Amino acid sequence: MTEILTAAQMRAIEHIAIESGEVTGLELMERAGKGVVDAVFMQWPELSETSRRAVVLCGPGNNGGDGFVIARMLKAHGWDVRVYLLGDASKLPPDATTNFLRWQALGDVETIGDAPRLAGEADLYVDALFGTGLGRALDGAVLDWVRDRAAAKDVGAKTVAVDIPSGLCSDSGRVLGAGADVVSAQLTVSFHTAKIGHYLNVGSTTCGTLVVADIGLTSQSHDGFVDIVEGARLPSLSKSDHGHKFSNGHALVLSGGANRTGAARLAAGGALRVGAGLVTLGVPHEARAEIAAQITAVMMREIDDVVALDQMLDDPRVSALCVGPGFGLGSTQADMVRAILARKCATVLDADALTLVAQMPDMIERLHERCVLTPHAGEFARLFPDIALALERAPTSGPAYSKVDATRDAAARAGCVVLFKGPDTVIASPEGQCSVNAAVYASAAPWLATAGSGDVLAGFVTGLMARGHAAKPAAEAGAWLHAECARVFGPGMIAEDIAEQVPAVFRAIGVR
Ligand SMILES: NC(=O)C1=CN([C@@H]2O[C@H](COP(=O)(O)OP(=O)(O)OC[C@H]3O[C@@H](n4cnc5c(N)ncnc54)[C@H](OP(=O)(O)O)[C@@H]3O)[C@@H](O)[C@H]2O)[C@@H](O)CC1
Ligand SMILES: Nc1ncnc2c1ncn2[C@@H]1O[C@H](COP(=O)(O)OP(=O)(O)O)[C@@H](O)[C@H]1O
Ligand SMILES: [K+]
């Protein structure tokens, strides 16, 4: 998996490289500037054909230093470049000072308040105001500029953000301050590796296209780093040539009563498609006929109460459970969730099961390391109201509390894996290992926003756990497959279509 970093982790990597003598800060800044200019010409080849007008906004730190490098390089391409500085040049950090002086030998530096902002005033705006060092909300002349640019309706102009759009917190993808004031970029060029904030919250909608420029730093993996889930790096999902159905696991999906069995059927279909050897729907008596009419390969067993459930769970071949989709919120359902948790079996808790856990104070303690909770934002807020509040409160300073922080805190409290859904799905283990399944940028999967798609995801994760995958890898693989199925199907997809795409997705990633 590819790591994404916090600002502090990036600074540490840079520090180690500089201290070891492998590279100087000035060399890194030069490569960063070149990375941005190369990416601009790659993204907009028409800009390299004739000379253009660039407006470069430089901040008081090293992000501003990158801006001076970019200004110099664009000038070398024959561009008309105007540079605007926020703050006092004498207070720039050393490498930024060097590049400020290099630029000064070529052109003027004006103050930020004078920076052009109206329609037609520039072909390219370079946002080198703040990068990983943003510490508080935009204000003063920068805020005015950002608001004026947003209002300018300047269709021809392009904006490239250096490292991250200014105003966006690089650890959380949240805009600092109570408003939504952030530079809106069509292209963002980050360095070495993407930052967590490029993927979470509004990060992906603010950055435009995200390009990561290699600046020659070596990767330094660390246990605490957050990963992006990638199809090419999933655990093997192939079936053994010599297996039989039971060796691929038996998943039990509990259904609700008559007229609300669709969710459990979607989950069961998902579990079967990802390769569980058998899938049984546990069905209350009143829903038997309804379900029987609508299943074929999925099996059915009547389960009306805890006694019947316990009998089923006495079969050691049942290797994973899914409870929650369309399940109901009555006392029988609550007792069944308790009975399931007592078994310490691989279990996905979704939808109504999450609401039951949130309603019963004793339930959270019963969760265990083989459980996966799959809340959307509303369910998350019911389960972990204080954590959700911290995530909703407008951040006044950076780094802001992020969805990664929230999911890690929730997993630690619950003592199990939490998969916090959304285009930026975050998966965390109680030990703090964390990954993001990012259905954004080129991997966007907007058609997943459809009724029942979460039920299919719960089924995918259950099926993978039934096959023997541990909770976190199953959650990661399930989330990735879910989004990839939606990408393969494309527009017009409904929940029933998701699992149908599994064969194509499996073939594409070499599963056999
Ligand atoms: N790491 C690497 O390997 C490489 C890093 N590189 C580049 O360095 C960038 C990081 O540089 P950085 O650490 O100097 O931080 P940066 O984002 O320039 O801002 C800090 C300054 O802004 C100020 N400030 C903050 N918020 C503010 C606000 N709202 N309003 C007003 N002021 C505010 C803050 O002031 P203070 O909070 O201290 O008062 C401080 O002066 C990184 O994003 C990348 O572009 C590349 O060159 C190559 C390799
Ligand atoms: N815009 C989107 N882009 C990518 N994935 C999305 C988007 N909207 C929703 N999803 C995914 O779709 C699923 C929806 O689940 P959920 O909210 O539980 O819906 P339901 O209860 O209708 O099944 C989650 O896996 C979520 O991550
Ligand atoms: K920036």
Automatic annotation (TrEMBL):
<feature type="binding site">
    <location>
        <position position="263"/>
    </location>
    <ligand>
        <name>(6S)-NADPHX</name>
    </ligand>
</feature>
<dbReference type="GO" id="GO:0110051">
    <property type="term" value="P:metabolite repair"/>
</dbReference>
<feature type="domain" description="YjeF C-terminal">
    <location>
        <begin position="228"/>
        <end position="509"/>
    </location>
</feature>
<comment type="function">
    <text>Bifunctional enzyme that catalyzes the epimerization of the S- and R-forms of NAD(P)HX and the dehydration of the S-form of NAD(P)HX at the expense of ADP, which is converted to AMP. This allows the repair of both epimers of NAD(P)HX, a damaged form of NAD(P)H that is a result of enzymatic or heat-dependent hydration.</text>
</comment>
<keyword id="KW-0479">Metal-binding</keyword>
<dbReference type="GO" id="GO:0046872">
    <property type="term" value="F:metal ion binding"/>
</dbReference>
<dbReference type="InterPro" id="IPR004443">
    <property type="entry name" value="YjeF_N_dom"/>
</dbReference>
<dbReference type="InterPro" id="IPR030677">
    <property type="entry name" value="Nnr"/>
</dbReference>
<dbReference type="InterPro" id="IPR036652">
    <property type="entry name" value="YjeF_N_dom_sf"/>
</dbReference>
<keyword id="KW-0630">Potassium</keyword>
<keyword id="KW-0547">Nucleotide-binding</keyword>
<dbReference type="GO" id="GO:0046496">
    <property type="term" value="P:nicotinamide nucleotide metabolic process"/>
</dbReference>
<comment type="similarity">
    <text>In the C-terminal section; belongs to the NnrD/CARKD family.</text>
</comment>
<feature type="domain" description="YjeF N-terminal">
    <location>
        <begin position="10"/>
        <end position="223"/>
    </location>
</feature>
<dbReference type="InterPro" id="IPR029056">
    <property type="entry name" value="Ribokinase-like"/>
</dbReference>
<dbReference type="GO" id="GO:0052855">
    <property type="term" value="F:ADP-dependent NAD(P)H-hydrate dehydratase activity"/>
</dbReference>
<feature type="binding site">
    <location>
        <position position="454"/>
    </location>
    <ligand>
        <name>AMP</name>
    </ligand>
</feature>
<protein>
    <recommendedName>
        <fullName>Bifunctional NAD(P)H-hydrate repair enzyme</fullName>
        <ecNumber>4.2.1.136</ecNumber>
        <ecNumber>5.1.99.6</ecNumber>
    </recommendedName>
</protein>
<dbReference type="GO" id="GO:0005524">
    <property type="term" value="F:ATP binding"/>
</dbReference>
<feature type="binding site">
    <location>
        <begin position="62"/>
        <end position="66"/>
    </location>
    <ligand>
        <name>(6S)-NADPHX</name>
    </ligand>
</feature>
<dbReference type="GO" id="GO:0052856">
    <property type="term" value="F:NAD(P)HX epimerase activity"/>
</dbReference>
<keyword id="KW-0456">Lyase</keyword>
<feature type="binding site">
    <location>
        <position position="166"/>
    </location>
    <ligand>
        <name>K(+)</name>
    </ligand>
</feature>
<keyword id="KW-0413">Isomerase</keyword>
<keyword id="KW-0067">ATP-binding</keyword>
<dbReference type="Pfam" id="PF01256">
    <property type="entry name" value="Carb_kinase"/>
</dbReference>
<comment type="subunit">
    <text>Homotetramer.</text>
</comment>
<feature type="binding site">
    <location>
        <position position="326"/>
    </location>
    <ligand>
        <name>(6S)-NADPHX</name>
    </ligand>
</feature>
<keyword id="KW-0520">NAD</keyword>
<feature type="binding site">
    <location>
        <position position="455"/>
    </location>
    <ligand>
        <name>(6S)-NADPHX</name>
    </ligand>
</feature>
<feature type="binding site">
    <location>
        <position position="63"/>
    </location>
    <ligand>
        <name>K(+)</name>
    </ligand>
</feature>
<feature type="binding site">
    <location>
        <begin position="131"/>
        <end position="137"/>
    </location>
    <ligand>
        <name>(6S)-NADPHX</name>
    </ligand>
</feature>
<dbReference type="InterPro" id="IPR017953">
    <property type="entry name" value="Carbohydrate_kinase_pred_CS"/>
</dbReference>
<keyword id="KW-0511">Multifunctional enzyme</keyword>
<dbReference type="Pfam" id="PF03853">
    <property type="entry name" value="YjeF_N"/>
</dbReference>
<dbReference type="InterPro" id="IPR000631">
    <property type="entry name" value="CARKD"/>
</dbReference>
<feature type="binding site">
    <location>
        <begin position="421"/>
        <end position="425"/>
    </location>
    <ligand>
        <name>AMP</name>
    </ligand>
</feature>
<feature type="binding site">
    <location>
        <position position="163"/>
    </location>
    <ligand>
        <name>(6S)-NADPHX</name>
    </ligand>
</feature>
<comment type="function">
    <text>Catalyzes the dehydration of the S-form of NAD(P)HX at the expense of ADP, which is converted to AMP. Together with NAD(P)HX epimerase, which catalyzes the epimerization of the S- and R-forms, the enzyme allows the repair of both epimers of NAD(P)HX, a damaged form of NAD(P)H that is a result of enzymatic or heat-dependent hydration.</text>
</comment>
<feature type="binding site">
    <location>
        <position position="376"/>
    </location>
    <ligand>
        <name>(6S)-NADPHX</name>
    </ligand>
</feature>
<comment type="similarity">
    <text>In the N-terminal section; belongs to the NnrE/AIBP family.</text>
</comment>
<keyword id="KW-0521">NADP</keyword>
